[in-house]
């Protein structure tokens, strides 16, 4: 049976001085995950706000991604398909059943 979902991420960017803070929020219906990121402009660099926005937003998305991966691994374990003590960085992608 096919299934289609649409998850929307709300990205909030706040610039103050040379620092841009980003907050990315995803509501999966089961959990709300919030990623955070920041960027700071070197005072000697040109003032290009878009660069700070891009860096802070990408860092927030990276943080969100890592948290979502941890949730997936937790759900895999709760479904009885644990990864036999492997940490998420070492584990293969996909649902795998530990070898006995």
Automatic annotation (TrEMBL):
Designated name of the protein: DUF1876 domain-containing protein
Gene3D superfamilies on file: Rv1738
SUPFAM superfamilies assigned to the protein according to its UniProt record, in alphabetical order: Rv2632c-like
Membrane spanning stretches: none
Region (Disordered): 81-100
Top-level lineage group: Bacteria
Pfam families registered for this protein in UniProt: Rv2632c-like (PF08962)
